[in-house]
C-alpha cells in the first residue's frame, strides 16, 4: 500500500538555451520524468528513479552530460556526477572521469560498494574497471556540436560570460548539467546530478555537481532533496543545495527557499543558475535566474514541463 | 588603525592521537597559531595568516598533510587542500594532487589565478607546473611512520574503525587533517584545510577537505569561518561546515553551533570529528567528538591550546 504520493522533478540545465535545441531539451526532460515516475508508480525506490532519469539525460546528446559532454581545454571529456540517498545520507560521486557512458551509475557504485563518497580522475576509472563498467571510446561521447563549440570558445572566460549571461543563437549547440530529485511511495527522497562541465574548462576542473551538499546534490528525508545547475563556481561559493535545505529546515516552503537562495547567489556572487527541489511533504519546486531552464515534474499522474520563465505545459499521464 | 582584534584558531586533526606524538601535536598547532597571529598583528590579511599556518602544519611530519601524509591503497600520497576568502567568497581547492610540498599554496593559486574552484589529480599537477611550483620527489613526503601504518592497515575499513573510534597506543604514528581560521584587523575572515586523507584509501578518493562548504572549509565575513576534521565521509554527509554556518546565521553563537553540529553528525551518521570556528564578532570556538584534537587559539596577545577534552593551557605572547 502506498503511503505517499510519488513525485519526481527533472532539470536539463539552466542557461541561455538556444532556440534550435529548445524542443529537444523539453522532450528530454519529459522522457526522463516519465521514466522515473513509472518506476515510482511500480513501487520502485527514489534512488532507482533518479538514476534511471539521469541515465536518459546522459544518453541524450542535447544535454551536457554523458554523450554530449563539453570538451575541456585539452579537447577531452571529463565528467562529474553525484547521487545521494536521503534516508541513509549515503552519497556517491565521481569527478573528472573519462571513457564511460553513464557517470551517474558509477557514482551509485561508489556509494554502494566503497567506503568513500568521491573518487576522481584515474582513480575513478580504476574503480570503474574493478566494477566491470565497460570502457567506451571517448570519441563516441563527443558530438559534432560540442566539437564546434570547443573550437569557437578558445578561452574558458569567454564561455562563461557568453553562455550564462547571454543567449547566443549563433552558437552551434548548447549544454548544461542535468539532474533529478524524487520521492518514492515510502517517503524516501533521492537526488542525482550529472555534467560534462563547461567548454574549455581546465583539465581536472571539478564543478559543483559532484560536491554533495555544496550544490550538486543533497537529500535528507526529514527535510527534502535538491539538484542544482548553472555556473558551478558560483554555486560552490554559496553552497546552494545545502543553503536551500537550511532554509527549508528553518520552516521555509520549498518554492520560497529555492527562489530566495538563487536570488542570494545572484546578489552575493553575481552567479546565475537554477535548482529543483522536493520537500519532505512532497511539494515539488523549481526556479532559475538564467534565461531558460528545461524542467519537468511528474505527480498525481500529471506531467508538467517548461523552458521559458513563464512557460508551463500540462498533460495527463496514462 | 586596527578596527578589529585579530584572532586565529588552528586544529591539527581530531582522532585518537597516541601518547607518543601528543607533545609534537601540541607544539605544531602552537607554532602555527603564533605564526598566523604575528602576520595578523602586523596588519597582514586573514588569507595570508591561514595559508602560512597551514604551510607550517603541512611541513610538520607529525600531521597528515604535506610531509607525513597517509599513503593510499597503492602506497602513494594524494593530498587535498582548500582555502576560502570570506570577503569575496572566492575559494580554491586541489584534490588527489601529488609531488608537491604545500597543497594549500596551490589551492590559493587555483583561487587567485583561475576561474575555477577545484582542480583534481593530473590536472592539478599540470596547473602546478604552469605556476612553476617545484615538483618534489614523492618519497620526500613519506615518513617512516606513515609507511609502517600503511603496512599495518591492509584494509581501509579497519583503518576507519580503529583510528576514529579507538585510541591505539601500539600504532606507530598517527595523522589527521590540519586547518586554520583567522579574522584580520579589517574584520575579514579566511579558512584553510589540508590533508593526506586516510591510510589505505582508494586511489582518487577525495575526502571532505577540498569540498568548500561541505565541510573542509567555509568562510563568509558576515557570518564566520569554519575548518573541519575527522571522518571525511561522515562530514560530507552532514555538510558540516555549512551546517555550522547555517546555525550561526540563524542567530546561534559559534560555540553552540559547533557543538550542536558535531552532535548531529554523531547521532545522524555515527561520525566523529572536530571543528574550529570564528564568528563575525570575532568569537573563537572549537569542539571535537573524537578522543582528542590538537587545537590552539591566539587572541589579545594570549595563546591557548590543548589536546585532551578538558585540557586548556594559556600563555601570554610577547
UniProtKB/TrEMBL annotation, chains A, B:
Query: Where are the residues marked Cleavage as a site?
Result: 176-177
Indicate the segments annotated as coiled coil, or none if absent.
none
An example Gene Ontology biological process = proteolysis
InterPro entries hit by this protein: ASRGL1_meta, Ntn_hydrolases_N, Peptidase_T2
Listed under catalytic activity are: Cleavage of a beta-linked Asp residue from the N-terminus of a polypeptide; L-asparagine + H2O = L-aspartate + NH4(+)
Q: Keywords of this protein's UniProt record, alphabetized? A: Autocatalytic cleavage, Hydrolase, Protease
Active-site residues per Swiss-Prot or TrEMBL entry: 177 (nucleophile)
Gene Ontology cellular component annotations, sorted alphabetically: cytoplasm
Task: Tell me which residues bind substrate.
Answer: 205-208, 229-232
Top-level lineage group = Eukaryota
Question: Which GO molecular-function terms appear in the entry?
Answer: asparaginase activity; beta-aspartyl-peptidase activity
Q: What does the annotation say about its assembly with partners? A: Heterodimer of an alpha and beta chain produced by autocleavage.
| Family recorded in the similarity comment | Belongs to the Ntn-hydrolase family.
> What function does this protein fulfil?
Has both L-asparaginase and beta-aspartyl peptidase activity. Does not have aspartylglucosaminidase activity and is inactive toward GlcNAc-L-Asn. Likewise, has no activity toward glutamine.
Q: What is this protein identified as?
A: Uncharacterized protein
Q: Give the organism the record lists.
A: Daphnia sinensis
Q: What is the lineage of its organism?
A: Eukaryota, Metazoa, Ecdysozoa, Arthropoda, Crustacea
